[in-house]
Protein 1
Amino acid sequence: MVRVTKKVANSYLSIIDEYKHATGITQYALADVYDWALERGRLETSPEELKQYHVARFSAAARKDSVRDANGATVRVRHCLEIEQPGGPSRFLWVDLEDDVPRDFLEQSLVQRRDKIHDDLKALQADRDYINELLVRRGQRPIQLSLPFIPRTEDTAEAGE
């Protein structure tokens, strides 16, 4: 996933809003927004953005690198660990399971993935609740979306469950 600053995000959101206003389209594909913005000279790519683009592609490729285990399940071969840098952006260190990787690195990597999934589920629940409030105000039925997941607690985090 590509990370952007609030300023960059606002710039892109502004272009999306301009596209919607100019075209009258409210259900849009981002590829169409890109084409529209490119035609109007609204996109510029700095060397840093180009670097981020390629880093994101490296990351996507590494996440897709997988094998099948003895049970036929797809298993990632490469794992990353986010390392926070004081006063700077985080770094993501990647490893290949074929190499002699410290157990601690792998455990921290799995915990970080689990925590991100948990955060995504909390965000999904908040989105569902907000959307349902909008739908009810509009006289429509709320969306039934089951989220039967166990909430993460500090106890399960420490136990690695």
Protein 2
Amino acid sequence: MQKIFLHGLGAGLISAIVCLFYSELYSSAMDVDFSDVINIFSVMGTCLFGSLIAAAGYYFLTTKVSDRDIVDVVFNIIFLTLTFLSCIYPFSVRLPFELESPELFPGLVIPMHFFPVLFWIAFNPAFKHGRS
């Protein structure tokens, strides 16, 4: 169980760092400032929370299914599906009227939605979760 939550914590921390880097890169390249809408704490919190919830879901699946390869496939499909569904939210959020270029907001946050799942999958070989 500890390895699973370390996997989630590692994926969350690294994805948060990458999201912050991407946010700075996107903001400077597009000359926009969305710091009134998203900030360092919301990015870090969202990445960590999402990855730790994913770790809890993975742990739950491991208690129900004994074949870890099946758990990996089912979990990855569920995590990716939920990530795609979460991309609907940025299109429905109401941004402040004084914000310049609100049409660029989804271009900032939608790629960020995929970083936690990408790092979960990338770190999976390092965290075999008890497999020999």
